[in-house]
Amino acid sequence: MNDPIDNILQQWNQTKPELDCSAMGIVGRLLLVNINWKKKIEHVLTDKELSFIEFDILATLRRNQIPLTPTELYQTLMLSSGAMSTRIETLVQRGFIERVASEKDRRSCKVKLTPQGIKAIDIVLDAHVKNMSGMLNGLDGGEQKQLAGLLKKVLLSD
Question: pTM of the full predicted structure?
Fold first, then answer.
């Protein structure tokens, strides 16, 4: 069975048979998987009325289990400080997080999940993990482990 990348590789093979396009096939498939998976992830988050960035902020606070400064959050999530401030304000207004004044510096604050935020992220996280597991249904456990190892190796070699 051919995937869309097979067709592209066949066209390149006919056009430039001397060109080794094997890397193009791997990268192309990763890019296509990324596009498809991103849509599936966004669908689950949209159903739960969260953007990907809002989910990422809530999940980061949940897994850290301690209040974080907006700077710590935006450095972790690779957002600009302005974008982080806007997202934090939205999540405060929705009752998912609250600002906590710093004990050491009155000009600084940290943000933490509210009980409502913990409940919301736990519900979304369950749906998100179930969705991701479904995205890997085509691979058995050993193949998933092998893929994880290979992708890690690629990331670390970059």
Answer: 0.84
